[in-house]
Amino acid sequence: IMSVESAIAYIKRTREDETFRRTLNDNSEDEDANWAFIKTSGYDFTMTEFKQAQDAVYKEFGITPM
Q1: What is the pTM (predicted TM-score) of this model?
Q2: Are 41 and 35 in contact (CB under 8 A)?
Q3: What is the spatial distance between Cα 14 and Cα 29, in angstroms, rounded to a whole number?
Q4: Could you read off the pLDDT tens digit of each residue along the chain, which spans 66 residues?
Q5: pLDDT score for 60
Q6: Nearest to 50 by CA among 65, 23, 62, 17
Q7: DSSP 5-21
Q8: Quick one: 8 exposed, middle or buried, by C-beta within 10 A (0-12, 13-18, 19+)?
Q9: Exposure winner among 13, 26, 27, 38, fewest CB in 10 A?
């Protein structure tokens, strides 16, 4: 569960922290670089946990996924 919470914190940060989001966008072509950046930023989650976190964040903010 801790990893889902980590992914939720990551999603919230990408929504609130423009510099953080820009760095991710700059690395978007390089998946390994992005995962390394995410991990060195203190987040630890799998893609499955990320999807669970997305569902939780969507529910919390009333966002409908596209």
Answers
A1: 0.84
A2: no
A3: 17
A4: 589 999 999 999 999 999 999 999 998 899 999 999 999 999 999 999 999 999 999 888 887 766
A5: 86
A6: 65
A7: HHHHHHHHHHHH-HHHH
A8: buried
A9: 26
